[in-house]
Amino acid sequence: MLPTKEDKSVESFDVRVVEETGSTNDDMKTHARSSRVSRPLVLEAKHQTMGRGTRGRGWKSPEGCLAFSLLLPFSMIRVPVSLVAIAVGMGVCSALRDAGRFACIKWPNDVWFEGGKCGGILCESVKDADGRSVLIAGVGLNRDGAAERTTNGWPISGLGDVLACSDHAAPNPMLGPLVTGILGILTRDRADVAAAWPFYDAFAGRTIRLEDDGGAWKGLNMGIDSLGRLQLKTNEGVKAFFSGTFFNDDAAY
Length: 253
Fold this sequence. Notes:
disordered N terminus; BirA Bifunctional Protein, domain 2; aa-tRNA-synth_II/BPL/LPL; ligase; membrane; 4 helices; biotin; SH3 type barrels; transmembrane helix; five-stranded antiparallel sheet
């Protein structure tokens, strides 16, 4: 359960901090189902023991990792559901760039920095106590890189001292800028988000290999359309994907 103490240092949303929890997204689900969600709420955990990524993958939270979840009603969001994770990623990258870390997005929801994955985003939805749909956007960012690789063979990078936090009882100094960046993008129009994508795409104009439930594909990354679908120019023409997994194919990079 969430603690009752709130940090109202940022007027547009409330922040709660815990030393340790299983999953901030799961905590937010529990909170939302028993509450009326009328404004954004952020939960930061200094350590997660059961963090989750997409497709049920585990998310490790080593020391120095910044892990938080943002809860807000869908009535505050202007982008369509299919663009929400991409918009959250753009908000994260925008804040990191302002802090001197030129982060990008590996479609659809990995945060990319200096040739490796430095973070991930998991967006989920539940109903609050009034039956209204609410968004839970979970974000995990690495301070340090690692010698090991992701399950798909990608390097793991870190953002360094930009995530430093000397007071474990206080929100990470980057939390405010990150959440502000996310909220700013989520309230933009669909066309604005799609138009901004080329500035955040870590693999813009490159040949990529992608797998989805329909098979494996290789082609030129043509960006996303207004629904957030990845456009891949293959030997069979341009194909659009709502979801899929990039793999590290050395022949393609």
